[in-house]
Amino acid sequence: MNAALPMLAWILIGLGILLWFWGTIPLLLRRSIFFRLHALTVSDTVGSLLIVIGLLLLRSREWPLLLLSLVSLVLWNSTFSIVLSRIAADDATDAQTGVLQEEAVR
């Protein structure tokens, strides 16, 4: 059991790094800014969480700091994605009609 824990930790860290790279692929697609932002935010948050959980398994003495980083990752990534999407929506909304212009968010 003792040898399986570091292996599980490295698998989680590897999956987290893979999710980081996988989340950057939608940035290259010709989709709306909201789709790209959502894909990047979700994969970055989940990838970061997997990496920190893997580090928690490797360095269990550092659990207060790693737990704080887990909470801050979830809160800050979510907050920043909401702020960025609202800014993008405000820039892409017609001031007179209030309708989102599809061409402006591509």
Defining key terms:
106 residues; mainly alpha; 3 helices; 73% helix; elongated
How does this model look, in words?
- This protein has 106 residues and is mainly α.
- The chain has one domain (4-105).
- The chain is 73% helix and 0% strand.
- The chain has 3 helices and no strands.
- Helix 2 packs antiparallel against helix 3 (63-92).
- The longest helix has 30 residues, at 63-92.
- It is elongated and about 65 Å long.
- Give the domain tally: 1
Structural class, judged by helices and strands?
mainly alpha
Shape: elongated
Strand tally: 0
**What proportion of the residues form beta strands (DSSP E)?**
under 5%
Structural Rg: 18 Å
Mean pLDDT: 81
Treating each run of at least 4 consecutive H or I residues as one helix, how many helices?
A: 3
Let me know the largest β-sheet.
Answer: none
**Proportion in helices:** over 70%
Query: SSE order, as H and E?
Result: HHH
Oligomer: single chain
The stretches of 5 or more residues where confidence is low (pLDDT under 50) are: none
For the termini, the CA-CA separation is 50 Å
